[in-house]
Amino acid sequence: MITRFFLAVSLLLSLLTSAQAQSVRIKDLVEVDGVRANDLVGYGLVVGLNGTGDGLRNSPFTEDIMSNILERLGVNVTGEQFRPRNVAAVLVTGKLPPFARVGNQIDITVSAIGDAKSLLGGTLIMTPLNAADGQIYAVAQGTVIAGGVEAEGDAARVVQGVPTAGVIPSGARVEREVEFDFSKLSTLQLALREPDFTTAARIETVINRSIGRRAATMIDAGTISVDLSQTGSSSPARAIVSIENLSVEPQRRARVVVDQRSGTIVMGADVRISRVAVSQGGLTLRIEEAPLAVQPSPFSEGETVIVPRSGAAIEEDPGISLAEVPTGTSLSKVIAGLNALGVSPRDMIDILKSIKAAGALHAEFVVM
């Protein structure tokens, strides 16, 4: 596993070393203010489960919603005692995409909220989906595709994945549109996904150069305002078409991201290290117990006694000792040197933390 990690890091370093700054389309760097998705949520019931549904004694809300649904269908269950195991209460979530029209279909996610063991093979009954304003914007229904497998015997149970959550592709139909007249806009606000003053200034320059007049103005590190009256386009949509495919060379802050659980290290090409020396080693504490049984003399009235015997030792690992790193060295070269010395991913992350704490790592250090 460590060998594969070193190979992956070496490949990443070679790509970072050889790659030059690439131009990116504006549409991949910004969001248009007002053009966004809206979150939807609903509470519904999944039926048709093979005995893996909610235990109604432990999930009384499942019985309530089932009674309400049956009464709406004309079935009176008041005072009846029923304990089916083929139903489960679920939360249904989805996103209403921008410019969605009545009749469009969207994907939804279904998640059990009771003690159901699996939603495999279940069918979601018609469920209204509400937005933050409390209005119903879509209605969901369909067969749940769960992402897990469960097998159970008398004395053992195995679960792979998460069978209590699933998706329904195109499982909801839009019933209400978001009131937003995009054609009436006189100014476009472009919001950078990663705010940066240099990138915003470059986007402003590229747009003005393409249009031939000063239509774009950088407001701050994350916003560029475009005056539609200066673009020469007949509508905001056509103005975006003429802007979004322009190429810009983005500028980002130097950043190092490490994942301590998997030992993954990802770094940008602009990360630099000041003059610093690194020495790393470790201690191994070893304690061994070897109790000794002492027998009494023959024909005596003594008793067998257990005499404790312990051994303790501390071993020092010589670790690594690197020569002083000169100023301006890229982090990729340091990582390559650590790889050549056979440093494990965990130790490498500890070394990077120490270099950052010493103030020699000039980058944003993100630990996940």
Provide a descriptive summary of the structure in words.
The protein has helices at 2-18, 60-72, 197-211, 236-244, 331-340, 345-357; strands spanning 24-25, 30-32, 38-47, 87-96, 105-112, 123-130, 136-143, 145-152, 157-174, 187-192, 216-220, 223-227, 247-248, 255-259, 264-267, 272-273, 279-289, 292-294, 305-307, 310-321, 329-330, 361-362, 364-367. It is flat, with a radius of gyration of 32 Å. It has three domains: 23-34 and 180-248, Gyrase A, domain 2 (2-Layer Sandwich); 38-174, no CATH class; 255-367, no CATH class. Strands 3-4-5-9-7-6 form a six-stranded antiparallel beta barrel. It is an alpha+beta fold and 368 residues long. The chain is 21% helix and 38% strand. The protein contains six helices and 23 strands. The longest helix is centred in the first third of the chain and has 17 residues, at 2-18. Residues 1-20 have low confidence and may be disordered.
Number of helices: 6
Tell me the overall shape. flat
Content-based structural category:
alpha+beta
How much strand?
A: 35-45%
What is the number of strand segments? Answer: 23
Q: Could you report the average pLDDT, rounded to the nearest whole number?
A: 78
| N- and C-termini, Cα separation | 20 Å
Residue share in helix:
10-25%
The helix-strand sequence is HEEEHEEEEEEEHEEHEEEEEEEEEHHEE
